[in-house]
Amino acid sequence: MLKIEDLTVEVNGKILLHDVNLEVEKGYTNVLFGPNGAGKSALMRTIMGFSEYKVLKGRILFNGEDITHLPVDERARRGLGIMMQRPPDMTGIKLGDLVKVTSKGKKDPEALAENLDMKRFLDRDVNVGFSGGEIKRSELLQLAAQNPTLYLLDEPESGVDLVSIEQVGMTIKELLAEGLECPGERCTKGKSALIITHTGQVLDYVQADRGYILCNGTVMCSGNPMKMLEEIKNKGYQECITCRLNR
Ligand SMILES: Nc1ncnc2c1ncn2[C@@H]1O[C@H](COP(=O)(O)OP(=O)(O)OP(=O)(O)O)[C@@H](O)[C@H]1O
């Protein structure tokens, strides 16, 4: 589904990512770990196609197509959706109108908002004055309306209180399960996701398939995400440089 090959990226003349290789197969949920400033959000934003991130080398393939130089809207049309860590305020745009446009009129904003306890926010300007947790729920509401096939989720649990985390986690679980098919005993998973998490809280709700550790702008190793999380909690990131984490 998503394949990143030897990707090197600069912003304002500074190389933020180099020689990044990473994959998310159809139906997989992969996790991106890494210390602050490693380049995780930059990678997400590059995958989504934000124009300030210039690809100097390598490519991004989505369903076999080279999308490295496609604009954001084209990537969204092809099925990429992002929950940003810090999305911008959109003064003058009502959340309800955005949800309606994003779903192309196919989904009822009120019904989508009900699930996320966001009905009272539909008449408000997107993100303006929203609390940290409300922003996360607003981002999820927009993703539910867009219905992408690959979810890029940048720290979905950050700023979310311990009660609301269940709501956020369960919503992500439901979104990723859409299209889940279980012919006979075997299930084919629905959507794909790449999730950035520091705490791993979201992994209490979503089963992760593979973890990647990004340090200093490049992927240092990949492996079992739960083992990686355990290692990071116990030992921090110092070992990732030499890629000695248990996999
Ligand atoms: N538009 C930009 N212009 C200049 N520097 C940038 C830009 N975007 C990101 N950076 C820098 O790139 C580095 C990586 O940032 P990024 O947000 O990707 O880190 P991160 O791994 O997501 O960190 P965190 O875990 O703290 O969210 C940081 O030093 C950041 O200041």
TrEMBL record:
The ABC transporter domain covers: 2-241
Mind telling me which Pfam families this protein's record contains? Answer: ABC_tran
By its UniProt entry, which PROSITE patterns does this protein fall under? Answer: ABC_TRANSPORTER_2 (PS50893)
For molecular function, the Gene Ontology terms on record are: ATP binding; ATP hydrolysis activity
Keywords per UniProt: ATP-binding, Nucleotide-binding
Record-linked SUPFAM superfamilies:
P-loop containing nucleoside triphosphate hydrolases (SSF52540)
UniProt name for this protein: ABC transporter ATP-binding protein
Task: Recall the taxonomic lineage recorded for the source organism.
Answer: Archaea, Methanobacteriati, Methanobacteriota, Stenosarchaea group, Methanomicrobia
